[in-house]
């Protein structure tokens, strides 16, 4: 309990400091210009999730990819006629949930035309995806505006690599003003969702060129992945959290702790002293409240990355406009 309280105090202090640095976003930014918009979004998502609960993972990841590439400005939504937008960075990027954001945008436009940004809808949707997966329900900051520049090259350079170690990942996060704590906490988003074989199968096929597998993996887990993902299998998916794929909980950290981190970047967390200490703390069921509090803080931090506010950017009627 003492450590729980300590984390909470640290969390609140950190978020207060950060909010002084960036006063442009605020809670309930639309309270007068589009009252009730957060309820509208949440109600629409309730229906979407009732039909497909797995899309929650997609929406959480979409906000992350948006924020890491040119800031949280909905540029991930933009389409390109010549295939050079962020979303074209890797044909098998496997992001999902675009159509959910667009459908909600239609409802929001009907209530308040040209007031609420796509970027804010994405931040709300990520928050609601976590809440409806039995995760923390935090207050989301709003007031972002949308960018209309979306370039494949930015996505290739700014997103963290799935085979990165903590040194590499820390650098990628630092460029976004995010700390090692944010890195390990936000990796906890992998408590939801799946990865396709090509994202990790190099770990079980000929890892160092002698027909071997990543020695860091728990052997039976590696064997199962090897059986599931033949080298030419691009389509099969495997849960990122071996315990509870669809529930926002400590199952991801328990997996990583046990050598069953699916991605190289997941497993890497337990091999660094700082992030490893967090993984082992989170391996204890009594740490759930700490994880929830930390996750809320780090999501708010991520939601501030490179935002456009005030008169920068635009509010557009359709998120997935075609540029170029
Ligand atoms: C630490 C750096 C990170 C790396 C290297 C990474 C990489 C990946 C990869 C490779 C996948 C699987 C893609 C596929 O094969 O289909 C994935 C899935 C996912 N990522 Fe991450 N990720 C990172 C951080 C994050 C963060 C910060 C979030 C959100 C806050 C996040 C949320 C998700 C979710 C929810 C999924 C599952 C998506 C689905 O089921 O459709 N990831 N990530
Ligand atoms: C409502 O919005 C206005 C302008 O964005 C802001 O100044 C005010 O603090 C907000 N009030 C509440 C209760 O959030
Ligand atoms: C992408 O996936 C498809 C099948 O879903 C596969 O045919 C293709 O080779 C993959 N491309 C890359 C670059 O991995
Ligand atoms: C992390 O990966 C980078 C790039 O592959 C490498 O240069 C570095 O030595 C690695 N660091 C550790 C601690 O393994
Ligand atoms: C493993 O990699 C080595 C070196 O690239 C290669 O010579 C060998 O044929 C590979 N083995 C398999 C089973 O793919
Ligand atoms: C889990 O954490 C609680 C509270 O901090 C502690 O009392 C307990 O010993 C821990 N359990 C394990 C297995 O580490
Ligand atoms: C990081 O913080 C600095 C100082 O507050 C700010 O100028 C910069 O725009 C931030 N970078 C991102 C990507 O948010
Ligand atoms: C991009 O947004 C700016 C405002 O920030 C606007 O002047 C410009 O016309 C927009 N361009 C496109 C292609 O929508
Ligand atoms: C795609 O279109 C953009 C904008 O018109 C242009 O700058 C870029 O060079 C084009 N890229 C390719 C590969 O055609």
Automatic annotation (TrEMBL):
Keyword Transmembrane helix attached: no
Pfam family, one: peroxidase
Keyword tRNA-binding in record: no
Gene3D superfamilies membership: 1.10.520.10, Peroxidase, domain 2
Binding site for Ca(2+) 2: 191, 241, 244, 249
Active site: 65 (proton acceptor)
GO biological process: hydrogen peroxide catabolic process; response to oxidative stress
Binding site for heme b: 190
Keywords on record: Calcium, Disulfide bond, Glycoprotein, Heme, Hydrogen peroxide, Iron, Metal-binding, Oxidoreductase, Peroxidase, Pyrrolidone carboxylic acid, Secreted, Signal
Location of the Plant heme peroxidase family profile domain: 24-323
Name of the featured protein: Peroxidase
């Amino acid at each position: 309990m003492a450590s729980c309280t300590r984390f909470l105090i640290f969390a609140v202090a950190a978020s207060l400091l950060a909010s002084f640095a960036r006063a442009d976003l605020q809670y309930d930014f639309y309270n007068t210009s589009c009252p009730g918009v957060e309820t509208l979004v949440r109600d629409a998502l309730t229906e979407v999730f009732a039909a497909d609960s797995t899309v929650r993972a997609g929406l959480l990841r979409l906000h992350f990819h948006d924020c890491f590439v040119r800031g949280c400005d909905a540029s991930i939504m933009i389409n390109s006629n010549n295939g050079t937008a962020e979303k074209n960075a890797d044909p098998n990027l496997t992001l999902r949930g675009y159509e959910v954001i667009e459908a909600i945008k239609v409802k929001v436009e009907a209530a308040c035309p040209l007031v609420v940004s796509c970027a804010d809808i994405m931040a709300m949707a990520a928050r609601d995806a976590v809440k409806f997966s039995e995760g923390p329900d935090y207050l989301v900051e709003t007031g972002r505006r949308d960018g209309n520049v979306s370039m494949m090259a930015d996505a290739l350079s700014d997103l963290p690599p799935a085979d990165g170690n903590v040194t590499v990942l820390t650098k990628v996060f630092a460029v976004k003003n995010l700390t090692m704590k944010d890195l390990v906490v936000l990796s906890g988003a992998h408590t939801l969702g799946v990865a396709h074989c090509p994202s990790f199968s190099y770990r079980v096929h000929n890892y160092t060129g002698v027909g071997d597998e990543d020695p860091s993996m728990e052997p039976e887990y590696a064997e199962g992945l090897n059986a599931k993902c033949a080298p030419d299998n691009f389509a099969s998916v495997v849960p990122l959290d071996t315990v509870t794929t669809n529930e926002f909980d400590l199952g991801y950290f328990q997996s990583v702790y046990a050598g069953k981190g699916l991605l190289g970047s997941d497993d890497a967390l337990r091999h660094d002293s700082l992030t490893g200490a967090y993984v082992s703390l989170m391996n204890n069921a009594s740490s759930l409240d700490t994880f929830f509090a930390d996750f809320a803080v780090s999501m708010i931090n991520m939601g501030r990355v490179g935002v456009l506010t005030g008169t920068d950017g635009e509010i557009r009627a359709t998120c997935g406009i075609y540029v170029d």
